[in-house]
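Supplementary Methods, section 5.1.

A reviewer requested that the exact input to the structure prediction be made available. We therefore reproduce it here, unchanged from the version used in the analyses.
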Amino acid sequence: MLNKVVIIGVGLIGGSFALGLKHAGAVRQVVGIGRDPRTMARALELGIVDAIAASCQEALQGADLVLLAAPVAQTGRILEGLLPWLEQGTVVTDAGSTKCDVVAAARAALGGKVAQFVPGHPIAGSESNGPDAAMPGLYRNKKVVLAPLPENAAADVARVADAWRACGALIHTLSPEDHDRVFAAVSHLPHLLAYALVDDIAAKPHADLLFQYAASGFRDFTRIAGSSPEMWRDISLANRAALLTELDAYLAQLTTLRARLAAADGAGLEAVYANAQRARREWIEAIEAGSPPPPLNQDCK
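The structure derived from this sequence is encoded token-by-token as follows.
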């Protein structure tokens, strides 16, 4: 049981974390902080938070756990604001989609107190935003990646892991570097592609006609283009090197497919399609089978 949890950024991610803890009976009080008073008032109205803090000093008093659920570019500024009021027993974590930049920002902002920061990333979400999108079951049976620092105490890592487990999540660990390489390929690149496709269609002179006939395939492929542009701008820039590597590989794949299409190479196209179909089917089957997470201390050195 956590006595007091502070959520900085009570939208889909932070709000769902709060609701998950409440639904599990794992927290006594949730306090919210945010830059938009209307958003915070809505979070209070929906019962996501029990109180809205007027300052970091007020919020952090007696806090067991703080979750940063704000765009990753804001991490350093937020941590600098927390530092003067960060009590010895308080653990801070985050929900950012990149980790190397977040760790660097935490080290710069927190200095000797960086041991109290446990980097994290819940692998769940939606194209919807704001407190109205929050749901208690968002993290149920979903992975949460922790990227513990060498300075982190085992008990502090366990506190963060247990909070996510209370929300129904499966805990995995990766180094910050491995995390960013992995998610450049399977998350950041897909978002870039979805945004690019919708932007390309919207810029065409007959866009209205094209959108009129866009159906389920286009909707499914581009669903994530409904996500927060601010958040994905920050993620793209924060993981720029790894994302560029994946984008270059994808451009090479497109060049190969274009050459096969231009040559009317049906067998070559079908081979790519068949391999993709097989790989996707195996991925879906693995998800449905529910692969268990590795032990939490596997990568904690």
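The radius of gyration is 21 Å. These observations are discussed further in the main text.
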